[in-house]
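Here's what a typical entry looks like (Acyl-CoA dehydrogenase):
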Amino acid sequence: MENYSNWIGKKEVLDDYSDHRPVAMMQALLNEENKLPADLPHLYHWFYFLPLVNGQDLALDGHPKKGGFLPPIPFPKRMWAGSRLEFIKPIAAHQSICRESEILKVEFKHGKSGDMYFVTVQHSIYAENELAIIEEQDIVYRDVSNQVQRAPQKQPENAETKAFDYKKSFPIDPVTLFRYSAVTFNGHRIHYDRPYATQEEGYPGLVVHGPLLATLLIHHFKQEYPDKQITHFEFRAVNPVFDFDDFQIYGSIKSTQGELWIQKDNGQICMKAKISFKE
């Protein structure tokens, strides 16, 4: 176990511009008419501040090589495990935006699936020099495992039965995954390169992006409750979704908060989320 405590407190500042192009691309992916909203929809700040890395500076998995802003943890499997977001003010389209990032924690853990490092990064997003969003992201680095992660066919032990206020579906296929990778300039091969995903990382299929699932959660919440102003949102990925999985998007909504989740048709919970809002 290597100590990466000297990376804690490292900072990075990136500038961008909130143009409509990635918004229109994501609306097309969601089968929506291009509405050209005055403000960025929630979580669409993820389409900016993207790492523009030359091909020679990519690792085997398609991600930028480690050791720039993030610590050079040698474990090959990496994933975005969850986030906690506070929405302070909307980001208008066609504004100058800035993201200030800081590494808050680097923790080593030994879990059921082996050794892991958890890196927590805080992003502060500014629009025209006013703080708009504070987000903490959890990034997980996992050790190599040759064990193929097969999707369960029967009712899993962690299946949950919950009351819900709405239940939605959104079909996923390899083209959807490729298009989302394109919108986010995400080269991670587990989302589009089936031989790599199955033979190198041991997955049974292409992996659905965690941020895409989180976006579907908020997207369908806003479809059901368009007038509610979201103030906080947090999500945690608990099981992977693959391109061959059928899943549903659920919401259980109270007066000022709610629970959202992604659940496969076999009952397995894949993502859990909490949302807070006001009228």
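The mean pLDDT is 89.

More examples are in the samples folder.
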